[in-house]
Design brief:
Elements: E1 7-9, H1 18-34, E2 45-48, H2 50-59, H3 63-70, H4 78-95, H5 99-116, E3 122-128, E4 144-148, H6 151-163, H7 168-177, E5 186-192, E6 200-205, E7 216-223, H8 227-230, E8 237-242, H9 243-247, E9 255-257, E10 263-267, E11 273-277, H10 280-283, H11 290-311, E12 317-323, E13 330-337, E14 349-354, E15 360-367, E16 371-378, E17 393-396, H12 404-407, E18 412-415, H13 423-431, E19 435-437, H14 442-445, E20 451-455, E21 461-466, E22 471-476, E23 487-492, H15 498-502, E24 509-513, H16 514-522, H17 526-530, H18 538-547, H19 554-573, E25 578-581, H20 587-591, H21 613-616, H22 622-638, E26 644-648, H23 654-666, E27 678-682, H24 685-689, H25 691-697, E28 700-703, H26 705-713, H27 731-746, E29 750-753, H28 757-760, H29 762-770, E30 775-778, H30 780-805
Parallel strand pairs: 16-17, 17-18, 18-19, 23-24, 23-30, 24-25, 25-26, 26-27, 27-28, 28-29, 29-30
Antiparallel strand pairs: 1-2, 2-5, 3-4, 3-5, 6-7, 6-12, 7-8, 8-9, 10-11, 12-13, 14-22, 15-19, 15-21, 16-20, 20-21
Helix pairs in contact: 3-4, 4-6, 16-19, 19-22, 26-27, 29-30
């Protein structure tokens, strides 16, 4: 291909050429030169250099006119911003029509047609010299054009790209981030278009975009051209792949989330992009196969490794991908350093916690981990922005990158469309504004003028609550958290909180509740999924068929959903230990699940009935237990998360414990095999009385202080009449705690506690630490205060010991 003074082939440039061809083109060239042999495929093409832009504006004497327009511009004056930006674009558009530059572009185009065919379709994309930097993404600030064919359309697209340096949003972004308009220039990339209009496209991040958790690749995608995903016009499919186990050879998608994928952008007969509805059948299928997701994860890791090596530091990446519907290959069309989650301060730990509540008005996907409050402003058209006031909650079907000047003044942003990797989400993160995207009906459910609380602090799901719900912000400096002998762990039920919670300084998960995952992520009784044909109600059979559509069997639906939930928690804390408790519903709770009433007996006292270990080998639940075991086996063997330990709850007698271990072994979960440890809950007085015997058949003990207190004192803590007598500090209870700890330590078994008593009563935590307990596991909100308390107690004990040694 021709190489004139203003043209460079993409293959001839690299990351060191950002000043010449901009961030986007430099990254594409870098990957084409360094990663092609590694299986990273990028489109071929050429770049029109930033010098072409500068020389064109100099020749047209455009600089003084641009200075007059932009120097001192108040970007908060939306009307004036729009007027001056349009005039600036017109100046650049006119200046870049020189004959010499046209000849150079057309000569390069001719070379490209000779190598790719006369009918080659082009993507013409802007690439600014201050774009795709580690400190600023410039996501969506400049224009790109697809399916460009012919000389005149190519020249027109190039001129419009040059002019897009002065979009309203681009001007605001530069002002907000401290970039000089006149130190930034624009290059244009001209490349063979990937026919994703016939397949799928999306974005991949080499970290979790919300928490900043770096051990996953996060992939989003939808059908058709990528604009629908990055502009937030659809709710995309989402996938997570766990990096450490993937690198260790385990090929598994950690987590799937099926998006609505309402529409797709395709090309009509004359090549014009048009929006089409996606068929119901396509919407119910993922846009990528697992094999393709894993291929993308491998590509993403190669890109991250390469750019990290070039930078001399870990560099999480934001990658745009496109699958070609003609050749079936996956192409990387953009790669840039991720600029928000990866830059979160390592210093102070800040967490938001909702302490009040209110009616949930709408819900969607949370962006940012904050809580904000404000008055709603519903924006249906760009004209509505003029009435927007600082501190309001911006509510719209979807945002436009042109709205940046308003978004940065918003308390929060709520949209009906979009996923966590769309432009609106990226910009909201950069500006530190919490957002909820993909709500579906926010503009009809929320009314301008009403006060709401926008909560993005509860995991992947975000909620808009009516009124001003109370919340607190916890701040802890790492220097406050001293290393201790007693481990502080967390209790965790919701997989959506796993990555965020894993960022806390916890030693692992002392209790992961499987019943929460079954209830929230499966929603049906395990036996109803194991034997749907036994259901007598047609309504139940239809519901089971509906939720398990797309899976080979209803049983497989259960196994995959539970495995993904448990696996997400195990991945978040990997390689720290995660102890998952086998399901511990009571019969009335099991009966409330879809299809459950047919499989559960009625009991007057479910608390002391058919629960925990008694169920697992019993014919009434054995097939449901087999599904639980299959799910856990998948987490350990297929996903490679060997940090997962299993815990047996409410095990009344030794013989019952042996039957459970035998049943687990028959399903592939054999204690001691492949490093599997099996713990037992110590929550029945008999567990304490026979602690030595229980320690012989189990690898560890976890004290469940709630049930243990009830059974020691004979108190139903849910009874309004006698609940006041429920007290973990009672001498009888503390004596049970002492004996359980001492017995476990006699047998060198790990002993921990997973109730909230240590968080509720500091004196209980102090007692446990003094008795030598190995770990205390509490809810995430209680972790940091607990760590401080443990450090104080252990420090005091050391001082006493030192005084004793010195007389």
């Amino acid at each position: 291909m021709t190489r004139s003074s203003h043209i460079r082939t993409l293959a001839s440039v690299g990351i060191g050429d950002i000043g010449l061809v901009g961030g986007k083109n430099a990254a594409l060239g870098e990957m084409q030169g360094a990663l092609r042999q590694a299986g990273v495929t990028t489109p071929v093409g050429f770049a029109i250099t930033a010098d072409a832009y500068r020389d064109a504006l100099t020749a047209a004497d455009a600089w003084p006119r641009l200075h007059a327009l932009l120097d001192g511009l108040d970007v908060t004056d939306i009307a004036e911003l729009g007027r001056r930006a349009a005039e600036a674009r017109q100046i650049v558009y006119a200046a870049t029509n020189g004959a010499a530059l046209r000849r150079e572009i057309l000569a390069a185009y001719a070379d490209l047609r000779r190598s790719c065919g006369d009918d080659v379709r082009l993507a013409v994309r802007s690439s600014a010299t201050a774009e795709d930097l580690p400190t600023a993404s410039f996501a969506g600030q400049h224009e790109s054009f697809l399916d460009v064919r012919g000389e005149a359309p190519l020249i027109e697209a190039c001129r419009r790209c040059f002019a897009s340096l002065f979009t309203d949003r681009g001007i605001v972004y530069r002002v907000t981030n401290g970039f000089d308009h006149f130190r930034v220039a624009l290059s244009v990339g001209v490349m063979q278009m990937v026919r994703s209009d016939l397949a799928a496209s999306g974005v991949a991040f080499t970290l979790d975009t919300e928490s900043g958790f770096r051990d996953v690749v996060f992939v989003t995608g939808g059908y058709g051209l990528g604009e629908m995903v990055v502009q937030g016009r659809i709710d995309p499919d989402e996938f997570h792949v766990h990096k450490p186990t993937f690198r260790a050879g385990y090929r598994a998608v950690l987590r799937h989330s099926l998006g609505e994928k309402q529409t797709k952008l395709v090309l009509d007969r004359v090549g014009t992009p048009v929006e089409r509805e996606v068929s119901r059948g396509q919407r119910r299928r993922y846009c990528l196969s697992d094999a393709e997701v894993l291929q993308l994860a491998e590509i993403a890791l190669k890109i991250e490794d390469h750019f990290s090596a070039r930078a001399g530091a870990p560099t999480p990446m934001d990658i745009e991908w496109a699958k070609d519907g003609v050749d079936g290959r996956i192409y990387i069309v953009q790669a840039r350093p991720e600029t928000v989650a990866s830059r979160k301060a390592v210093g102070e730990i800040v967490s938001y916690r909702l302490t009040g509540d209110g009616e949930t008005l709408v819900a969607g996907k949370a962006v940012g981990e904050q809580i904000a409050q404000g008055v709603v402003r519903v924006v249906r058209t760009a004209q509505d922005l003029a009435a927007f006031q600082p501190g309001e909650v911006l509510v719209a079907q979807m945002t436009s990158p042109d709205w940046e000047s308003v978004m940065k003044r918003a308390a929060a942003v709520v949209t009906e469309r979009g996923g966590r990797t769309c432009h609106a989400a990226i910009l909201a993160r950069e500006m530190g504004v919490p957002a909820i995207v993909g709500t579906g009906d926010a503009t009809s459910r929320l009314r301008s003028g009403e006060t709401v609380t926008v909560c993005c602090a509860e995991g992947d799901a975000g909620r808009v609550l009516a009124g001003a719900a109370s919340f607190v912000v916890d701040r802890v400096a790492p220097g406050e958290l001293l290393a201790t002998r007693t481990e502080a762990m967390v209790n965790l039920a919701n997989p959506d909180l796993a990555f965020r919670t894993a960022m806390l300084p916890a030693a692992g998960v002392g209790l992961a509740r499987m019943e929460f995952i079954i209830n929230q992520h499966v929603g049906a009784h395990p036996m109803a999924l194991a034997h749907p044909g036994r259901l007598t109600r047609a309504k139940d059979r239809a519901a089971i068929a509906r939720i398990s559509a797309g899976y080979s069997t209803p049983a497989e639906y259960f196994v995959e959903r539970v495995a993904e939930g448990v696996g997400t928690i195990a991945a978040g804390f990997y390689p720290r230990p995660v102890i998952v408790r086998l399901s511990d519903f009571k019969t009335n709770e099991y009966a409330s699940l879809l299809g459950g009433r047919q499989f559960e007996p009625h009991e007057d006292n479910p608390m002391l009935g058919f629960r925990g270990a008694s169920r697992y080998a019993h014919p009434a639940y054995a097939d449901g237990f087999a599904l639980e075991c299959r799910a856990l086996l998948r987490v350990r063997q297929h996903m490679g998360l060997k940090n997962l330990k299993v815990m047996v709850p409410f095990c009344r007698r030794l013989e019952e414990g042996r039957r459970v271990l035998e049943a687990m072994a028959s399903h592939g979960l054999k204690r001691g095999e492949d490093g599997l440890e099996v713990f037992v809950m110590c929550e029945i007085p008999n567990n304490v009385i026979q602690i030595d015997a229980f320690c012989e058949i189990f690898d560890g003990v976890s004290i469940g202080s709630n049930d243990l207190t009830q059974l020691v004192l004979g108190v139903d803590r849910d009874s309004e009449i006698v609940a006041s007598d429920f007290d973990e500090r009672d001498p009888g209870v503390t004596e049970m705690l002492r004996q359980a700890i001492a017995g476990a330590k006699r047998h060198r078994r790990h002993v921990g506690i997973c109730g909230e008593a240590p968080a509720t009563y500091p004196e209980v935590a102090q007692f446990l630490v003094e008795q030598g307990i190995d770990s205390i596991s509490v809810n995430p909100a209680s972790l940091l205060p607990l760590k401080r308390l443990i450090a104080e107690v252990e420090g005091a004990a050391r001082k006493v010991a030192a005084l004793a040694r010195h007389g």
